[in-house]
Specification:
By secondary structure, the chain is an alpha+beta fold. The chain is 25% helix and 36% strand. The protein folds into four domains: 90 residues, conserved putative lor/sdh protein from methanococcus maripaludis s2 fold, CATH 2.40.420.20; 89 residues, Elongation Factor Tu (Ef-tu), domain 3 (Beta Barrel), CATH 2.40.30.170; 63 residues, RNA polymerase II/Efflux pump adaptor protein, barrel-sandwich hybrid domain (OB fold (Dihydrolipoamide Acetyltransferase, E2P)), CATH 2.40.50.100; 73 residues, Helix Hairpins, CATH 1.10.287. The strands form five sheets. Strands 18-19-20-24-1-23 form a six-stranded mixed beta sheet, with no helix packed on it.
Length: 362
């Protein structure tokens, strides 16, 4: 009986080691757009993150192509309006201009000769020494010579103006943020050469959730605090409020102009912008509003999915039954079932399930 017992144990071990375990199915983590919801009117201010940028940024290029002759611009360098930043070889353009001047000089001589001849023939005609037809011919020759002169003058002026195309001057005071060419390089017309940004004109771009976009307007005052300049708070003014959401985004771009910026502020810095909203006068107007896309409906009634944040931008979903109230431009009023400050999924709630892991998508 001993061999049979050993065979049974061997088969049992073989079953669990080879065929007893099944590979776990990897969970697919889907991205979810979300929003933190608050009682409207319960707080008079909200802080939204943004990124600084230059209010004016110009990417410069040549109108003609050629070989780069000189590059005077350096990244980080302050420049004044009119300063020459770069130039390309203009030998051919200079030669064309000189040819145009020579052609103009000849046209001017022909015009002067035709004018002298016209004056002579006119005097003879007035004394009845030449016929009217000869006088008319002299006038036509002068008119033709004068027209040719004017044409050559415009051509010479054009060739002279084209010489300016071979030099690139700063259109404003600012700082060089990018130089994309080197000396002796062959470049094409319209190719990006130098980028110059304004220093005294700084803006902050903020993504505004739909629950608040209707409460901001151009001219509103805000305060701006940069994470790298924690000891300073700057005044700001809303200069642009977008009518539509940004590309591949669920928030509305809002542009804030920083008043009296310092040289410490540079494009690309992260900033916290505090918006002050007026609170309702009556407590009955304090409501918890969620976007329309956050509310779903099944046989049990209306529901939302709240999100509990984890690490690495992940969150766990939780389905919560809610009682909704009136529908406004900002969304549905939640009468019961949701807490102030909760994170809620704002899109695709019909395809979510309770307790799954999702990736937070701003």
């Amino acid at each position: 009986m001993k061999p049979k017992h050993i065979l049974t144990i061997f088969c049992t071990v073989l079953f669990f080691s080879c065929g007893g375990e099944k590979p776990e199915k990897q969970e697919i983590i889907r991205p979810v757009r979300y929003q933190q919801v608050f009682l409207s009117g319960s707080e008079q201010s909200r802080i939204f993150s943004g990124v600084s940028r230059a209010g004016t940024e110009s990417t410069l290029s040549f109108r003609v192509g050629g070989i780069v002759e000189a590059v005077n611009a350096k990244i980080g360098e302050k420049v004044n309006k009119g300063m020459k930043l770069a130039s390309i070889d203009n030998s051919d353009a200079q030669l064309n201009y000189e040819k145009a001047l020579e052609t103009l000089r000849k046209a001017e001589i022909q015009k002067d000769n035709a004018r002298s001849n016209l004056d002579r023939v006119k005097e003879l005609y007035e004394n009845n020494n030449v016929s009217l037809s000869e006088y008319e011919v002299a006038k036509d020759r002068y008119a033709s010579a004068n027209s040719a002169y004017n044409t050559e003058k415009r051509n010479a002026d054009l060739k002279k103006r084209e010489l300016d195309y071979y030099a690139l001057d700063a259109p404003m005071d600012g700082i060089i943020s990018q130089v994309a060419i080197e000396k002796n390089e062959q470049i094409s017309p319209g190719q990006a050469v130098v980028t110059i940004t304004s220093q005294d004109d700084i803006e902050v771009s903020v993504g505004m959730p739909e629950a608040y976009i209707s409460r901001v307007k151009i001219g509103d005052k805000v305060s701006v605090k940069f994470s790298s300049l924690s000891d300073k708070i700057f005044d700001g003014t809303i200069s642009e409020v977008s009518f539509a959401t940004g590309l591949q985004s669920s928030v509305y771009p809002v542009i804030v102009t920083v008043e009296h910026p310092t040289s410490d502020i540079r494009p690309g810095m992260s900033a916290d912008v505090t918006f002050n909203f007026s609170a309702p006068n009556r407590a009955s107007e304090i409501k918890l509003i969620v976007p329309v896309g956050a509310v779903g409906e099944d046989i049990d009634g209306n529901f939302v999915f709240t999100l509990t944040e984890k690490e690495n931008g992940l969150a766990i979903t939780q389905k919560k039954k809610v009682t909704i109230g009136e529908l406004s431009q900002e969304g549905f009023e939640i009468i019961e079932g949701l807490q102030n400050g909760a994170l809620v999924a704002t899109a695709g709630v019909e395809s979510l399930r309770d307790g799954i892991t999702v990736k937070l998508l701003k």
